[in-house]
Structure formats: C-alpha cells, structure tokens
Amino acid sequence: MAGTSERVVDVTVTPVAFRDPPLRNSVGVHEPYALRTVVEITTESGVSGIGETYGGTLHLERLRRTAAELVGMEVWSLNDLIARTTRALGGDTAGGDGMAGMVTGSSTADRVMAPFDVACLDIQGKLVGRPVCDLLGGAVRPSVPYSAYLFYKWAGHPGQEDDDWGAALDPAGLVDQARRMIDAYGFSAIKLKGGVFPPDEEIAAVRALRRAFPDHPLRLDPNAVWSTETSLRVARELDGVLQYLEDPTAGIDGMASVAGRSPTPLATNMCVVSFDDLAPAVARGAVDIVLSDHHFWGGLRRCGQLSAICETFGLGLSMHSNSHLGISLAAMTHLAAATPRLTYACDTHWPWKRPDEDVVDPAPLRFSGGGVTVPTAPGLGVELDREALARLHRQYLDCGLRDRDDTGYMRRFDPSFPTETPRW
Ligand SMILES: O=C([O-])C(=O)C[C@H](O)[C@@H](O)C(=O)[O-]
Asked: Which of its termini does the chain have fewer beta carbons within 10 Å around, N or C?
C-alpha cells in the first residue's frame, strides 16, 4: 500500500479518566482521577491509528478543533499535520491549558499536534507492516529501561481510594516503596519526586535509598521549588550520590546560576520545554540533560529532532512522564528504542496505574528487568479496546473533574499546602 494515497476520513477525540492514587508533589496531591485524551485517526482504506495526550478543557477544545481540520490530510504528510494544526489553532496559543505552570513555555501547537503525530505513525507502521520504531530510524535496543518513580504518598486520603502500595511519608516508607517496585518490575534506576518536605528530609530519603540500593542510579526532582542557594547546597551534599538533580530551581537563569557551580549534573523538563528554549539554555550552560516528552515536544519525530540538537551541543537526553495509559507507554518505548542518545532509564508513572484501567490491552507492553520489550507488531503494537475506552469515557463524565482545566498534570491544590516559590 506504500506510495499510494492514504487520506484521513475520520478523527475522534475521546476524553477519559482513570483512577490515580494520592501521590504528592510540590503542588499538592494528585486528584483521584487522572484525565487523558485518546485520539483515533481512520484512513480511506479503513486503517486506524491511535494517540494519547493529557486532559483539561482548553486542550480538549483545541484537539477537537484540530481533529476537524485533519480530515482529508494525507497520512504520510506529517509536514501537513504541522500546517493544519497551526491553521486550526489560528493564533490561539495562549495559556498553559492546565499544565499548572509546569510546561507552560512549551509550544501549544506542539502539544496539540503530538497525539495526532503518534496516530499517523501508528497508521504508517500498519500500512508498511513495520513497528513505529522502524519509522523513527530503527531500534538500537531491544528493551527500553524505565526507572522506579517514587512518590511521597498518603494512604486513606479523603475521597480517594487506596491502592495496595500503602503510605510513604518518610525515608523508611520510600525505601519500602522502592523495594516493592523493584521486586515487581526489576527497575535498575530510581527517581524520587521531591519538593514536598524540607530539603534536609529529602536528602535523608535519598541517602536511605543509596544505602538500600547501592548500585541503582538515583535522581531527585523537587519541581523547581528551591532557591538557587538551596539547590546548590543539595547538589553539593548529594555529590556522587545522585546521577542527576532534576529541576531544583526555576527558570533558565536560576538553573544556570546553579549549574555553573554544581558538582551534580542538572536535568530539566521544566525550563527547556520547547525548541525556543534550547538556544538560551545552551548559551547559559543551564542544564546537562534534557528530559524530553513527546506530548509536549510535538510528537515522536520532533523528539528525534530534539535528540539531534542535544547531540550537537553535548547535552544528555532522557524522558519525562506524568500519569499516562498504555498508548503513551507504547509510543515512549518506540521513541526511546529508536533514540541512540537516550541512554538514561526513562521516567514512567506506569506502576501507579491500576492494571484493569486502560484503553488498550497492555499485554504487548511487557516489563522485564526494569525495561519494556519493544513491540514488534506493525504500528505501535497496541490496539484500542473499545469497551474499555467507553468505560473510561463514562468515568470521565462522572468523575467530577471534566470541567476543570487544571487536571492534566499537577492536580489538587491542597489549601493547607504552601504554594510560594521558592519554598525553601
Ligand atoms: O517534573 C516531573 O517529572 C513531573 O512533573 C512528573 C509528574 O507529573 C509528577 O510530578 C506528578 O505527577 O506529580
């Protein structure tokens, strides 16, 4: 079928909600439900492809407007996808669309385009009978390593169902959480979401993890709630303990003033979030590692371009994640498999999702030794489960969060929780 015309005849955009435990971050605590959006593109020959992105009303409205513009598009023309997305947005690019200040500097067009890019690649793979990683240059690794993503976590949070991971509010609780995650998934790297407790408590937690897991690379990510002085102090105290320190402080200037004196490498998914950020970040020496995320960088092919830029300027590359479903895990796995520069274990929220809540049958996404084996079936290698999609869409309609614009990323703002930055 390759070489023949393959036009888009239908695009659907379906918001869904899945249950999320009370994970804590610098903003507060996760809502009981994470909102995601599933897109499905169907072509004239009846081949369909899927993509996934975050939720929130403004983002959803932009996705729907863009979906209408994609009918008639040649599915092989991802350059046309960029043009049509830009046309559909018609200059409507302002606002953080619910990303709660975390990636508001990223490009609206890139964020809107990303799930459609994934769906088109899924179709292209099916048309030529090759997995998506082959369309991205070919897999350089048979399995993509992910890290154990630890969270301070409440148990029995009002209005939130407990999962069986239990509470983790101190170093012993986090070590226990890490042990269970490593036993279950085999992860060989550990990331702690910090910015919740005063830095010395989080340093103690990292040290406890180091004692318990002497060979696991460790990362700490306080989501930019520390001052530059605190960031530097922590970077020095954890010199040789952390593989990298992620977004200790806000902005390219803040990160640059830490990076110049820090013995610990700095990573970011907050101050380098679009192609426009790369030149100033490189010029200021603000970061050592860029944490890519295809949901924010315009999809899988644009992340390949990001990789080339990182290579040019000697920056490391890894991958950020927030609450997601199996479509995104498949897309992340194909992308990481086909990105030689991506040598760190990637982030994933996967263990926090209930196994019975997904829009695809996750069987092809097998974790073994901390990594996901790259699917070899044509396209993404996962198929939409329409009954599950309908169920999670109903959950979206009923969950009480559907009118919110701030539910795609950092959720509930605990009123008792300080929100000023820097907090320490
Ligand atoms: O900076 C990060 O790694 C994130 O923001 C990832 C997640 O979204 C995490 O912070 C969360 O879900 O609370």
From this structure: N
Read off the pLDDT of each residue in 20-26 and give the average, rounded to a whole number. Answer: 90
8-133+386-398 placed in CATH 3.30.390.10: yes
Alpha-carbon span 336 to 162, nearest angstrom: 32
The HSE-up count of residue 107 (CA atoms within 13 Å, CB side) is 19
pLDDT digits (tens, 9 = 90+) for 234-256: 999 999 999 999 999 999 999 99
Q: Which atom of ligand 1 is nearest to the CA of 320?
A: 3
Is the pLDDT reported for residue 311 higher than 80?
A: yes
**Strands 148-151, 367-368: pairing kind:** unpaired
CB distance 25 to ligand 1 below 6 Å: yes
Pick from 320, 353, 412 the residue to mutate for probing ligand 1's pocket: most ligand atoms within 8 Å of its CB: 320
Q: For ligand 1, say whether the CB of 193 is within 6 Å of any of its atoms.
A: yes
C-alpha Rg value of the chain to the nearest Å: 20
pLDDT in tens, 99-132: 545 556 678 899 999 999 999 999 999 999 999 9
Average pLDDT across the chain, whole number:
93
Q: Is 221 in the pocket of ligand 1 (CB under 6 A)?
A: yes
Domain residue spans of the chain: 8-133+386-398, 138-373
Report the atom number in ligand 1 closest to the C-alpha of 321. Answer: 6
Straight-line distance from the first to the last Cα atom of the chain, in angstroms, rounded to the nearest whole number: 59
Give, using CA atoms, the residue closest to atom 6 of ligand 1.
322
Residue in 30, 320, 334, 349 annotated catalytic:
320
Q: What is the pTM of this model?
A: 0.96
Q: Do domains 8-133+386-398 and 138-373 have the same CATH topology?
A: no
- Which CATH number applies to 138-373: 3.20.20.120, 3.40.50.10490, 3.55.40.20, 3.40.50.150? 3.20.20.120
